[in-house]
Each structure stands twice: as C-alpha cells, then as structure tokens.
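Entry 12.
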Amino acid sequence: MNDTRASISARVSRVTTRTIQEMKDSGETIACLTAYDFLFARLLDEAGVDIILVGDSLSNVFQGNSTTLPVTLDEMIYHTKIVSNIVRHAMVITDLPFMSYQVTVEEAFRNAGRVMKETNALGVKIEGGERVAKVVEKISGEGIPIIGHIGLMPQSILKYGGYRPRGTSEEEAQALIRDALILEEAGAFAIVLEKIPASLGRTITEKLRIPTIGIGAGPYCSGQILVTPDMLGLFEDFRPRFVRRYANLAEDISRAVRQYVADVKTGAFPTQAESY
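Predicted 3D structure (tokens):
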C-alpha cells in the first residue's frame, strides 16, 4: 500500500483535481495544510503536502482577529498570490472570505474569477451546503475547481455561539449528509468536514464519489487538514482536541529570541568571527 501511495504522488508534477480523485479512488489519504506566506508554502510543498489551503484562518493566526470574519477578499488574494508563486507541486486552494460569495451568485463567480486570474491558485473553497448550491454550480460550471465546507463553519461562528461539534443530533446529521450530496451534485470536487462525529464523517465519505477532507471529523475521511500554526505549536490561543501538535515552535522561538537578546545585551553577539 505504501508503494502504491508513493507512486500516485510521484507520477504527477502538479496535484490537480484529477490527482485528488485518483487518490480517493485508490485509498491514498490526502494530506492538506494551510499556508499564508512564502517560507511556509515552500516548506510544505517540498515536504510533500498534497493540498495547500490559503485559509481565511489567516484572520486568526496571521492577523490576530478572534474570528475569520474580518479578512477581506483583497487580503486573501494578496496571500494566495505569494503562496502560489512558490508552490510547484501541491494544489493551492484559497478560501473565499465572508461576504465575498453570499450576496449573489454573479458576485460570487466574479470574486472567484478574480482569485483565479490574480493569484494562479488552482481552486477556491466556500462554506455552506444547500444554501450555496447555486454558487457552487455556477463556479464549477464555469471551470473553476471548488471545494465545499460543511459541519462547523467558522464564518458562521457568531450564529453558533461557540465551537461545539456539529451533526451530533440525528436531525442535524441527516441535514449534513443531504448538504454533502447536494454539493457533490452541484460540482464540488471535494468537501471539508469540520468538527463532526467520526461516525458521521465515515457515513458521508462512504456516500460520496468525491473526496472528503476532515478536520476534527475522524479517521475515515479521504484526507485530513490542519491549520499549520496549530500543528506546529506556534498558535497557542486555540487548542482543540483534534489538533495533534507535531512541534512546539512557540517555545523554541521564544527560547531562541531570549538567548539572542541576552547575547546582544552582554556583548556575546556578534563575535569577531561574525564581523567583517
């Protein structure tokens, strides 16, 4: 199985919608992370990440806002352009931010078109199920790859009043299954499932032909995504149960900076060897 998984990624120079579907069909799990700048985009790409999402989570982990709502379309385009310019292998997807696709279908398509024309991204992502089906149908129908996003939707967090899991009741679970099927029919090539029971994540994944990307949705999804500053231990304000920390960079960086300050203050830096 490992040889099969390696071969799928190795035989394409650039991950596309076709690659993602082939990975789903073959049972290869899709690895996704977020990036907002040149340095991290290059590191993730060289490490073999399949999809790099320029997420509206940059509002939280890059701009310091408490929700994703303040980030603008222009800011998303700016960051996506930086990421797309360095990535050579991964599929770069960008979030359409709050109020960039909710007003009219025509405005949503125009904004998605701006992203594609100005950034070299390979697709966009939007939140919502049945209520955004016409938007998904228009955007995908005009040739722009689109990922759906259901379950906990951060752009609706004020409506929810908190970050509790979604789909825990039978009624809500059935609604999410229906949303997923509608998004697939509308033309989404994948769907993010956020913070739902693992059993529901499995049910939705088994019902769909297209891949599911889980974030707090259990191990049965077609792929997984985390916010990179979360999994690297850089962002310490928010630590949900579904985030596995693979490093503790906030502590490492703090220690390094403190040592630098001390060395400068005591004259230990720079030395003659570090001078011209």
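Annotation: The longest strand covers residues 146-151. The chain has two domains: 2-245, 247-276.
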